[in-house]
Write a structure and sequence with these properties.
single chain; 190 residues; mainly alpha; two-stranded antiparallel ribbon; 9 helices; 51% helix
Amino acid sequence: MPLYAHTPNERNQWHDLEDHLRGVAERAKVFGDKFGAGDWAELAGWWHDLGKCSERFQAYLHAQSKCNHDRHLEGPSRVDHSTAGAIFAVHRNGVRGRILAYLIAGHHAGLPDWFSDEGGGGSLSARLGRQDLLDEAVKPGVCKELIEKRHPTSKPIGCSPHLWIRMLFSCLCDADFLDTEAHFNLSRAN
């Protein structure tokens, strides 16, 4: 069964998940290469939508394909598709994976806090406890190529770690937006 990233565009073409992840990873790598972190940006691109491999997200997309509104963002009535990749990054890479987890978990809503003063489940520490979201997305034979990606080896150079993380975040968000826009707005695709 094919996996999709987004609902059909004006030509009634679904956005294939693997194509989207590859497109985001490639764009993010180009952006990240400008400051020596292309490998980090690329991996964030590959894992940012890992949660879209879940049956629940795929069912959600099919149900939403009949609606005429913006369907690629998360919200209260939407299925969380970013937490699975954040959890996977930490499982795969330990403490260093938290860098990727911040990028991935926040790629629609902004970089999350580690803890929330308001007791929110939106903090990264709370979201990383949602193992069920990763279990739904990563099953034998599903998204195998995604989970075999290598950990980045480059190190932050010439700037503070905080700035470096924000620059990586921008690489991922811009790449995701551009690839999604290319699917939905064919006249602006490049």
